[in-house]
Amino acid sequence: MIRKKVLVTGGAGFIGGNFVQYFVNKYPEYDIYNLDLLTYAGDLTKHRDIEAKNNYFFIKADIADRAEINALFEREKFDYVVHFAAESHVDRSISEPGIFVKTNVLGTQILLDAAKQINITKFVHVSTDEVYGELDFDLTTFFTEKTPLQPNSPYSASKASSDLLVRAYHETFGLPVNITRCSNNYGPYHFPEKLIPLTISRALSNQKIPVYGNGKNIRDWLHVFDHCAAIDLVFHEGLNGEVYNVGGHNERTNIEVVKTIIHLLGKSEDLIDFVTDRLGHDKRYAIDPTKLEKLGWKPTYTFETGIFQTVQWYLNNEQWWEEIISGDYKKYFEQQYGL
Ligand code: NAD
Ligand code: TYD
Description:
The protein is α/β, with parallel strands linked by helices.
């Protein structure tokens, strides 16, 4: 029997990494190719448990290198693409927007061209709710798939641009695509520059935790395993050309999130440091996931169960995040906050 080839881009990162493990274990009948450039956010040590499996392969490559990507697609003739690779941190997009355009916009367009050339069966583009911009604090409005795109940060603008290209390749060339737009994720292997792993790692080391502005901004948190299950469903059942929002109605203010973690770790709230607000800081994100629920998805974690397990995971995997934060990241953090 001919085996199906699934290319996962960005599979050394946080969500792509969890997805690769989920797919390799759940679908031994698929060959999973993890393509990643191994930027500061990519790390292969997370895949020690699967690297010996005969349905897992790693390819080091840059999605923004057209010649390299075209040659790879021509050689391997992938059946499916699940596209996670991106620059993903809003603060970095404020200080260095250019790389976000190169990776997120040009990189996506190069993948779309390569996928078109080999008549791909499905291209799933993993996007974000941040493309919709921000909501008010009133808690009565939600992002639906029909909400206009109004990205506010260079990161979200680059993701929105890539979404529009994916849409255009469907409309113009009939490429079988789906776009997923998920809310903020958390869980194992989350890079400790993002709020939740940053809070856990800094609290564990009794270091100050920077909270932007007054801490009242709201994010809608989803455990990464629930996100992976959503992408699995869209991959197998999504109607071509459709967008699916992903979220589990877990809205929390940032200060609530930080205090929850501090209390779980038995630390003091004195660690909280209110610092200068992020430029253009989006007020609130909140997802209406009705369309995906109708397709058959529902989340399995509440925020309480998910954050408890995540804090435990960081306690059990100190070596992983200590290595990550010891190098370039430490310098970045000192420059960013002077802490
Ligand atoms: P991440 O930063 O943890 O991982 C990104 C991965 O992409 C890294 O392994 C990196 O090495 C790789 N990469 C970067 N540039 C590359 C290039 N030019 N070529 C090949 N690989 C490259 O990101 P994440 O948080 O796992 O997010 C993955 C995707 O999910 C992104 O597209 C992001 O926009 C989207 N998303 C993230 C969230 C979230 O809360 N983190 C929520 C919704 C959607
Ligand atoms: P982040 O994890 O960077 O995700 P995003 O900006 O994509 O939503 O930030 C989540 C929220 O936490 C956001 O409102 C900004 C805030 N935040 C802080 O208050 N302090 C921090 O050190 C970081 C990284 C984020």
